[in-house]
Amino acid sequence: MRINHIAHLLKTNPAFLNYKVSYLAEYCGFSSHSAFTTVFKSVTGMSPNTYIQEISKSRAL
Fold first, then answer.
1. How many CB atoms within 10 Å of residue 13?
2. Calpha distance 16→24 (Å, rounded)
3. At what angle do helices 33-44 and 48-60 cross, to 10 degrees?
4. What's the CA gap between 27 and 40, in Å, rounded?
5. For residue 28, what is the DSSP state?
6. Are the beta carbons of 48 and 37 closer than 8 angstroms?
């Protein structure tokens, strides 16, 4: 649920694309960057950095 929320924010609020992954992890309640990355990847199928890059690419078009 937290991962879906942060994924939604990344898609709908361009400011979130500029935040570091460690901030995003803390923002949605994860105590560590690595735990956030692991769960994010299991939910979305890609790492947070890749996810952000894909959204940024689609916005640039």
1. 9
2. 8
3. 60
4. 13
5. T
6. yes
pLDDT digits (tens, 9 = 90+) for 10-50: 999 999 999 999 999 999 999 999 999 999 999 999 999 99
- Token pair belonging to 58: 């689609």
Find the Cα–Cα–Cα–Cα dihedral 45, 49, 51, 54, rounded to 10°.
Answer: -130
Q: Report residue 52 as tokens.
A: 């952000």
Model pTM score: 0.89
Amino acid (one-letter) located at 4: N
User: How many helices and strands, by DSSP H and E, does the chain display?
Assistant: 4, 0
